[in-house]
Design brief:
Helices cover 27% and strands 27% of the residues. The protein has 431 residues and is of the alpha+beta class.
Amino acid sequence: MKVLVLGSGGREHCITWKISKSKDIEKIFCLPGNAGISEIAECVNIPLTTDNFLNIQRFIEKNNIDLTVVGPEAPLVDGIVDFLSSSGYLVFGPNKKGALIEGSKVFTKKLAIKYDIPTANANFFKKEEYKLAKLFIEGLDENSFPYVIKADGLAAGKGVIICNNKKDLATCMDDFFIKEKFGKSGDEIIIEEFLDGFEVSVLCLCDGKSLIPMDLAQDYKKIFDGDTGKNTGGMGSYSPVPFISEVLYKKILNKIIFPTYDALKKEGIVYKGILYGGIIVSNGEPYLLEYNCRFGDPETQVILPRLKNDLLELLLKSINGELDNNIALEWEESRAVCIVIASNGYPESYSKGDIINGLDCLSNRKNIFVFHAGTKKVNDNIVTDGGRVLNVVGLGNTFKEAREIAYGGIKMINFNGMQYRNDIALKVINF
């Protein structure tokens, strides 16, 4: 088969790498790809914007692509699956209606409320309701803080802000409504109660009728050690999550994941692709934080290296409605730890064009993977080309071993201003 992967990040590099292991692969293409992906796939620089959907379709037709796998959320929310499917092309990912699960936090929150899915109490305000929202904030009890403010639309993982007092909350609201920091994504907001606890990511394969959960992962959103600093797209992850008991896992599935999938069906949405639930466990009970409509990043980078199944086969069965009870996911016993290396200044801004040294030293090392996230080739050099630059993944029999492998690999890499967290998976080092 000829497969096209859409995207340019570490998630897409990992997906491309895993698909390349399939016995049925003839060739892989990637749009637009990155320096790492170009080692295993033919990359073509066609941006994934809506005005390029027709160019992407022409590329698929010209190259006789059998399957297209959509990595990032933006083209899914923009309806690329509907666009390509209407012309008869096979695409992995939810349609535009399904992608609302990530494209609109208001849609998801109201869906959870309607179907009694546990989630934080929330209030909704549109841009034209600024004065009403301001009065709401003024009426809050300072002792009830923190509160969380969320942009309705896509914001690259940065549209959720925890506010510790009225002043902070009012300032954040002005960033959304007045300064338009997140553009149209911030035209509607959610202000909700803060739930204290730990988070876990549940990625599920869906075929429109049934759903199969993959192994759990946990990611790290904050830029600095100790979960401090600003939110990012993700600074690291690990899998599995050993402190989730079987009882708690069943609660997550039976109270949140399965009811959500049933709710989508009741709303007339045939959801195919990945349904990724962001769950917080507070006082021993799980609550829905958010949903994503695609593979997580950087969770994918610790999940797929441990998956024994043929990923291409699973993607095709998802599209064709064939994820029945006869399919069982099989997992390596190893632990996986991913550390994200970011550019100087990220997440506020970041430099580009810095030469990356040391990657050759890691190319043939056992139990270590380097998935490129923001890189490109310039002459004979690989240089930085994004905020999150590289994902270094270590596999080990224990998390301690996996951490040592991953951080040992990072010591061999160097570029100007590189930054990363030192505490990824430290909490599970004894498992």
